[in-house]
Amino acid sequence: MGRPRHAPRPETGSAAHPASTAQALALSTGHATQVASDLSLLLRAHAFALGGEGAALSRVAANLQAFGGQIDDEAAAWIGMGVPPAERPAICLGDQPGVLGPHSFGFLNNIEGIAPLAAPLSERPRRGAVAWVVPRREALPEVVPLLCSRGLAASWLISVGDGDPAEVMRFLARDPATRAVLLAVGRGLRPQSLLPVLSEKPAVLFELPMTPARDRALLRAVARRTRATITTDLEEWLAHAALFDAAAAVEPGLQSSSFRRAKAAVVVVGGGADFVAAEVQRVRSTTPIQLHAVEPTDNAAETGESLRAALVKAQRDVPTVLLCGPPDLLAEQQPALTGLGSLLCVDPSQPERLRALLRALSVTLRPQPATQDKPLVVRAEPERLHGVLATLPPPLYVGGAMVREEVLGDHDLKRLLAAYGIRVTRQAPANTGTAVLRIASKLDFPVELIANVPPQADVQALVTAEASARALCKTQAELKRQAALFLANSPHVLLREVLPSAVTLRISAAVERGVGPVLRLGKDEAALLPLGKAEAQALAAELCTQHDVDCADGLGALLSRIAACVTEHALTLDLLVQLLDEPVVSLAAGVLVRASEKA
Fold first, then answer.
1. Interatomic CA distance for residues 27 and 8, integer angstroms
2. Residue 390 to residue 91: CA distance in whole angstroms
3. For 272-308, how does the pLDDT look when each residue is reduced to its tens digit (9 = 90+)?
């Protein structure tokens, strides 16, 4: 039986390279090597040629003179406004592209004390092992004053402006002075280019509101795959930096296995112990945290002894200790804190900072899987699979080239998905009134009756097409009458079960440039394929929380099976899924890419 077919453009080339192959090809080019060399030369420079004029250049000159560095018209590195010299690695403060920029505000090499920075710099932050990568100056508060006011350390502060930070991240991955990277997401970030470098060192991404929605979902997928942390909260981003800073102070020989089950401790001195205890309890379910309370007395020395004893005990048991107390009391007890190593101090009267630190602790200390996250093993039913693929019409040829893209109808796609154990709506086609009644006897009323509609690649287009060719039949008589009307103008009709009302999630799968196959879930989430079993379950739990439904196990299994089906076949999918106790694919659209045939 013939079926409507949309003839897509003929494709004669091979399928796109996987993400890793594409990145390897990019890195093997001379251009990528030249960019890396220019960046290293620029960031290691001590002398800079200045081009242009204005307040920004005046700040650069002042900072170079005050904090290290030289101004030399013959220097290899250039920083300024306007078009940069073609032969020099450049920092572009204006709207021209450069190694850093456009709209960079320079960098701070805090290891060597070189500051070609077009921003106020009254003092340098502490030298440390955390690198900060930020976009243009307007996107964040003044970064250096912020770090100094919070007592946060830095190895580097690098502004990429509106440029892509991937090469900077690659530079920092090889920098021996940097142990962790704090990256604020700007306009130029491309998740595709970030994927190969994000897992090199611990990284925390601060997602700014300017991030495009589509890139935001892909960025989260890349962060999830590389086990980087991503947050939309500035306080939490800074809290992670404080934790990295504290971790850098722990003796290298002191391994986590030497500690007890708890991974962190909170010591409270002074008022606010009940509030702190309540906040700790919120995160204790996922992160074992000790809690110690020290009651201050009128005798300052006695209070100091009790506080020191609690801190010594805590540091003996766990690698990270958070000290909560009023600043004046902690200043009074400074002699008792001498020689105790790195402590994270926070004022309980600043609840947002306390909560951010505790949230960061719960993420940082979350147990990591000991083995690689492998995809769920899914074996398709051979008979079902063959039944779908064998009934496809023969391929079309246009100009001698085979049309590889075959748009599949809802019913064929659901049969393919069902072969992988995915629950789909119960439905069947019929081309006579007798067949309609026979199929209806196996379904419960009401029943959806849909006239023949063309296959679609977009599920919303399918919804629109079915809207004018669908009837909801509550009785057998109504079904018989509607079937006669539809069959008079259509070669066949489709009977489909009616699902209970539930939250609907749109799930699509397609190959995206630079990262390979990607599963998109609603507007805000995405996952890279192949999809590990643990990652699928974590993503399902997150989605169920967002939609306030309780089907995480079923959704996790469905995501794993969809991923297996897409990985096995060159499929572009667009699905609507009803989030019932066992999620069900209610509508399916997509394209199958046929294997090329040799002449």
1. 33
2. 59
3. 888 888 888 887 656 678 888 898 888 888 888 999 9
